[in-house]
Amino acid sequence: MSALSDLSMPSSNLSEPVSDVLLRIEELSLHYGKNQPPVLQIGNLAIDRGQTVGISGPSGSGKSSLLYLISGLLKPSHGKIIWNGTDITTLGEGETDRWRRKSIGFVFQDFHLIDEVTPLDNVLIPASFIGWRINDATRKRAHELLDQVGVPLARKSTSDLSRGEQQRVAIARALLFDPPVILADEPTASLDDAASKTATETLFSLAGSNRTIITVSHDQDVIDRCGRVLRFDKGALIDDSANIKEKAELA
Amino acid sequence: MNPFPIVMASLKRHWIMNILFVLLIAVAVAIGVGLTAQERALRQGSAQAADKFDILIAAPGSQTEIVMNSIFLQHSAINLLDGPYWGKLFDDPRVEIAAPLAFGDSWKGHSIVGSTPQFVTYLSGGLASGHVFETIEQAVVGAAVPLAIGDEFEPSHGHGPEEVLDHHHGAELHVVGKMQPTGTPWDSAIIVAVEQVWDLHALPTGHHEPAGDEHDHDGSEAHEDHEDHEHEEANTHDDGDHDHATDHDEDAHDHAHEHDGDHHVTRIGPPFDLDELPGVPAIVVRPKSVAAAYTIRSDYRTDHSTAFFPAEVLVEMYRLLGNAGSVMRAMALGSQALVVAAILAAILALMQLYRKQFAVLRALGAPRSYVFSAIWSYVSLLVITGAICGLGLGWMVAQSVSRIFTAETGMAMQASLGSSELMLAGGFVIIGLILATLPAFLLYRRPVVSALRGS
User: Which domains does chain A have, with CATH numbers?
Assistant: First the structure.
């Protein structure tokens, strides 16, 4: 099976809009024990296609848990997570894996690249999940993505890249299957200011009508770039607002 | 799916540890393989060594000692079978070949064995060069003895560490023939007429030899040759021809006669005169038939003699060897189990370092089976590589040990990789592949989110 032929989804395809609402969360709660208070509790929440959403809040407020829940890595205790009409909490593990591979691109704080392979091979790693051989189209796309994020193809060793370049390779890796959603978990937290600015530029340059970016961040520059900001505290959504700058622009 | 990018990365990342894993596995497999191959080589070599020794007849005593003395030429003091008990074998119609074996002397660590010309021909299956001894001053050497036809040497008393270098008998012997390689300890032996050994040790020589009479016209060829030699040696001994009649050292000849003083040994080989036969450590008998073998063995199991098939003793030795081998194999298996356990423990620890990497792969869309197959393939590659290296290492060690053993004993031992070694390594691999599922399964089941949250 070729790497890109796996992109058709049996249960949900976020690239084919059912409505403007891409993600709908209904009566969601997450508990880590029967008698424990909820780690996260959200009544109803909808995110539209193409939005850039920043999630902020103090440590332990449930930001990362929300990211893991909406990516299908965590199952909620209660509630529904409906992506483009499909409740992913009802999918089996294999279906969730396939759905995530096609629909979600993950960017992590510590990049999690494999130092022992080249930047190009790092970008191609997700292709190895679905096929023995990597076809020319996938390889060409990996080349284009590295070019797009500004990492020279001549760089043979991943460990020789700067941290900013490593994060941009991680962003290219997240984009290999052209997912409609990018989930980023503190994407600039381990970068210096200059690298952070470049990585933020790269990340938000991907946004558009067909791509939604949801990022957890403490970095105000990142939050400022988001069109919508969700603020959490003690597992509860305490504020859901358009960005102040965006509000100002709208005004 | 193709987990090999991750497998290769894992191999590169901890390459020193991975090399150590492979070496540990290789040594564990090599111990087992080497033991098995060596044991088989020893069995084959000893069986080959005993091939020409159908029945051994000796004075009552340890059969193992008699076998070690007669077949493997590992000499020790054993009782002598008196002449009258073995002399009649030469007239026994059931016997095809009977040959006395007399030990006691050596040359530079090579045993000198006294026997008959017929035995030399029988043992060697025809000489590689030269001819069998025809006088008591002549010798035939085994293929591994560093003496050539025409060489002369002086026997010393004793063997190996007991060899008394400065205690020469004074006899100078001449090499007249070289045996073909037999792949037995006899390749390192020097065979002389049994009468030579008796004569050197001042024993009766098996023949009535008239004192001082060098012209006993009994019609035997050996005697005639010797007689001719007596007449010719003064003029011809230095002409380079290694025929016994011309390759004779008169000084040594005279010296040898210091022992018997008043008579000259002119006849060698059967027929012997029964009343002139001294005792010998063992007689090799080749019977004419299987039935004859059993009746001879039965007839010579008396109060004065013992008779047995060396194969029986070897089977008993193999049983003991097998028992020792079983213990050693069990120890080898134990060490293999320890190695596997140590490697598994190390890999489980290593997997803790990898768990976040695999959690990230899961977040990127890798199915659990990808994680499982990546870890399983990684451990399996180590096990398979180690087992293959172990096979080679075990074979090399067994070869080296065989070479040393062959050099020391003359017994041809050819260690080779057979089905049992392949099965042993294969069994190790199968167990390794099964055990490799353990770390794979543990990481396969590891919750992704807790690994992602861990630093």
Answer: 4-250 (3.40.50.300)
